[in-house]
Amino acid sequence: MALTDITTTEILCAIEEFDRVGRESFLHGRFRPARRYLLAHNGRQYGSKAIVGVAHGERPRLDRLSAARVPQTVGHGAAL
Length: 80
Description:
The chain is an alpha+beta fold. It is built from three helices and two strands. A hairpin with a 2-residue loop joins strand 1 and strand 2. The two termini are 19 Å apart.
């Protein structure tokens, strides 16, 4: 699956999970805190690679991406 196959719905599901469990739990063991690229949604900021990695896991029958599997090009601006 290409990153362009991830839908807005899957991104929003990942954001909802982030908000529900909190930053530390969301990132724990999967991603490091964002240093450069952030996703802004409803006045809050999220690590773009972590959100995309978890959104990838929202796709049917796919495992979530780890930080090592999210391409470095993720985070170069995208609109929801």
